[in-house]
Design a protein that fits this description.
The chain contains 13 helices and 14 strands. It has 360 residues and is an alpha/beta fold.
Length: 360
């Protein structure tokens, strides 16, 4: 069942036990599914996200992580609001595209893809633009692997009294985040990232008092975050439309396994060790990382091509034949490829990867 390891930022390598839970069928109207699985997941996500869980609530949403980002922006940012998106990669830019589709009042603050978002620049912008009501940022920008300084950004945004929306797609569950202490109002992530589930749905963890005010804001039927939340609240886990039952059950197993591992901090430690072994090994072979170490996340790492004539397609296929699947680069200013450190993988897997690269 595991022909190769997915060394990507998701979908990623999952455990056999997570995959095994998908062998049973579930009824979307049944109490065992709604109360015994969906509601358990919702409570678990809030407990994982906040030291004050009573202030937050979780909404599950069918589709990819981008569906959830669109649902959040389209359901939380009103017609008279003003959104600032601080972007240093493809996923920050995608929030801007969503804002354009929804005709939101939106301004993009663009940073180079190889640098972190500057809290000082965000603060200066907010000083000069009092009309801004919401600020959105990507925590881990997997375009390059940069980990934006969320603590400092959050401090600036909250000091200015703005609503903070965080795309934590590739960090939540693998990098410690406390929404309550940081003042995060909306956090968005997906089943097939650091919690190590499989693709099919994402989720939004929201400040309850904020979400309660969002009735009628959404511009979409299927992506109406408020209506989805209200149905889940009143129906004790019932989704408005058909839910991906097998994927949801697999996610609950993945959450159980995260807890058994020791929680987010223990998983973060494993991912950091995966990253350390990977980077030290690749550097020993002459490969250079795109980002400076202080901005680098433990989620995915970008490496420069080792030479002008490097054939990534051949490199990719040769590594795949040895049991490893990696990612192409995603920036235009340099020739790079990327290797993920998350999923059901351990430091020994990266030692084997480095050995395989050395053989190539």
């Amino acid at each position: 069942m595991r022909p190769y390891l997915l060394l990507t930022p998701g979908p990623l390598t999952t455990t056999e036990t997570v995959k095994g839970t998908m062998m049973s069928d579930w009824c979307t109207w049944d109490k065992d599914y709604n109360e015994g699985i969906v509601e358990v997941i919702r409570r678990g996500l809030v407990d994982m996200a906040s030291s004050r869980p009573e202030e937050y609530t979780a909404v599950l949403m069918q589709g990819s992580g981008t569906f959830c980002v669109e649902a959040a922006l389209g359901s939380v940012v009103g017609a008279d609001d003003h959104l600032l998106v601080a972007a240093n990669g493809a996923y920050g830019k995608r929030m801007g595209v969503i804002a354009d589709y929804y005709k939101l009042n939106c301004r993009m603050m663009k940073f180079d893809e190889t640098v972190a978002v500057s809290p000082e620049a965000v603060s200066k912008y907010l000083d000069e633009h009092g009309e801004v009501t919401h600020v959105a940022v990507v925590h881990c920008e997997t375009t390059t692997g940069v980990l934006n300084p969320l603590d400092e950004i959050a401090r600036v945004v909250k000091a200015h009294g703005k609503t903070l929306i965080v795309d934590a797609m590739s960090s939540f569950g693998g990098v410690p985040i406390d929404m309550a202490s940081l003042g995060i109002d909306i956090l968005i992530s997906s089943a097939n990232k650091c919690i190590q589930g499989v693709p099919g749905f994402g989720f939004v963890i929201a400040r309850r008092a904020l979400l309660e005010k969002c009735k009628g804001v959404a511009r979409s039927l299927s992506l109406d975050l408020y209506d989805q939340w209200e149905t889940m609240e009143k129906g004790h886990g019932k989704w408005r439309f058909t839910s991906p039952t097998h994927v949801v059950r697999a996610f609950m197993q993945a959450m159980n396994e995260l807890d058994e591992e020791g929680g987010v901090r223990a998983r973060h430690a494993r991912y950091c060790e995966n990253h350390r072994v990977l980077v030290e090994g690749m550097r020993s072979l002459g490969y250079n990382t795109l980002l400076p170490d202080e901005w680098q996340s433990p989620v995915i790492t970008s490496f420069y091509y080792p030479s002008a004539g490097f054939d990534f397609a051949a490199f990719y296929q040769a590594l795949k034949a040895k049991g490893f699947v990696i990612y192409p680069g995603k920036i235009s200013q340099a020739d790079t490829f990327r290797i993920g450190s998350i999923g059901d993988v351990c430091p020994d897997d990266f030692r084997r990867l480095v050995e395989a690269v050395g053989e190539l």
